[in-house]
Automatic annotation (TrEMBL):
The keyword Plastid does not apply. InterPro entries: MFS_trans_sf. Signal peptide: none annotated. This is DUF1648 domain-containing protein.
Amino acid sequence: MAKRIHPLAANCIGLPKMQQTDVIKLRFSVHNPVFQLMKTRYKIYSLLIVGIPLLGVWLVWDYLPGRFPIYLNDNDKPDHFVSRQEWLRMLLSVLFILGLIRSVVLALLSKRINEQDVRFTRIYLLSAAFISSILGLFTMKTVYHSSDFLPVLLVLFGAAGVYLTVATNRPSDDQTVNSSLVRQRNESLSQMHTLSRLALIRVNLLAALVMLFARSEDRWTIGITANLLALAALSVMEVIRRPSG
């Protein structure tokens, strides 16, 4: 049996290219050297992304106050403090918990999406950016007493997740179906898929913009209400556009 050679190697040494079947098999093989290199790269990128807020804490460590307020009373006055070391342990605990949750989610997701799929890479990096942002918000809120921007962060990453991981067009169930009713149903589902994707992205972006200028205590309400209204509107449209029969 002739030894298989990667297409790039074949081009380099002047040998014939592999058949299309061999290319597909190699592409989706875990031993694909190109995939292994890409996997190593986006793992390094994700570690660098998560490490950004920790690097920031390290750079300003000597300028941080000796203690941090972590609880506020009914008058928004701090009534419980922790030392810098205790605060740092809290920050690392948050990182550990979020990292553990991320690992479990990615492990479950890898059973449904091939790791070589570009969507998996996007989710991998987006989840790292989400953890980095959470750590940044935690630092800003405890050190600089900033407003609560967690709901803004959630809707922004929700919109980004839909945009990066959900395909623009829904693949047809069966391109060879001759039934006009089935084709009409597939076309309707495809249109609703595209419309739902676009609506969720735009609604969350608009909600994030409104939430930036809203009061801190109103941000959760705005984000949840906007998404509930969008889902309700899409449900009504799905019923209206559903083909009869």
